[in-house]
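Q: Convert this sequence to structure tokens.
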Amino acid sequence: MAVFGYRAADRDGRVSEGMVEAAEERGAAEHLREMGYLPIRVWPAAVPGAKTAAAAPRETRRGGTKRDLLPFLQGLRTLLVAGVPLDRSLEMLADLFRGKPMGISAGEILREVRSGSSLAEAMKKASGAPFDRFTVQMVSAGAATGRMEEALGQVCLFLQRSKDFQASLLGSLLYPAVLLVASILSVVLLLVFVVPRFVAVFAASRIALPMPTRILLSLSTFLKEQGLYLLLAGAFLYYLASAALKRPEARRDWDRSKLRLPGVGGILTAMETSRIMRSLSSLLSGGVPILSAFMIAREVSGNQAVREGMEAARLRVQGGVKVARALAETTPVPEMALQMIAVGEETGRLEEMLSSVADTYEENARRSLQRFLILLEPSVILAMGLLVGFIVFSMFMAIFRLNEVPL
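A:
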């Protein structure tokens, strides 16, 4: 089957352009007539942007898809709310994102929809898997319940909240990370390039150097002579750790231990709780059955221990256990969140309560991270000051000793 571009008019005289799949050009024109269009021009065409995307590295396509996914879904929802038919909406989005990965996906989805597939099935078949299980299940539930626009709205809201939360975390961590890296590089440069210049001077003077100076010079000599080996050893240890963490058991134990770290563990637990509860709330509000919602929500978490706990909780819910109790027995969800979920189950407002839990723990994670960074930033500055102060103090002690040497 080949792909043909077309320019055609509908029954109301409106002219539109798009793509259609057929064995030959004449078959494409016949297919357009069967769809109720009057063909004006039909020509052989590739999927918009296919050549560009094929030549681009897979990482670039994936990054572009991730970046354009939310605007694509927002545009699709806006067009459907405005009453534009699904196929025409996909045509417009394919044209809007022409030359980009989402333009290719829109063209593929359009062909699948016109061949009889549902929107969810077409999204699932799109090359490069730009749509995750959460989005596909929400769209499928929206089609089954006749609330497609609402389902897409839930997906967009979830993606937007997740994006805003990640941007907030990255913005908060950027300054401390830059400060820490700059501090480490400054100290290493002083020890490797500045301090060794004084070694020959001190050796020629044949004076007894103070203890702090001897320690500093030994450390400087060690870093200069063994620095490359230290880097290689660090890279090797990183490789060993990465290989070990590919084993599910090791990954689960490592992820579980991260949740128990003093200070940081509470922040990570709040973030995982917020992420899972928000996805559960969105899925249940969109009409996804609770067992399916548990299966999809667990994939949202990046913590192996939490994912396995969600699967165990799903099995307990399947056996008749209430959601709050199942989560309490299998996951690290905090006690207050469990109580709120239990209240939601008792009052029949589980979706609303899950959303409230997500909001609460997202704010808790943000505040806890802010408090942690408030302590981290002055700690890094103080440590940097002490290290540089030790270097300067050690050098000046030796210089003062040089001044005491008789000419």
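The longest strand covers residues 2-9.
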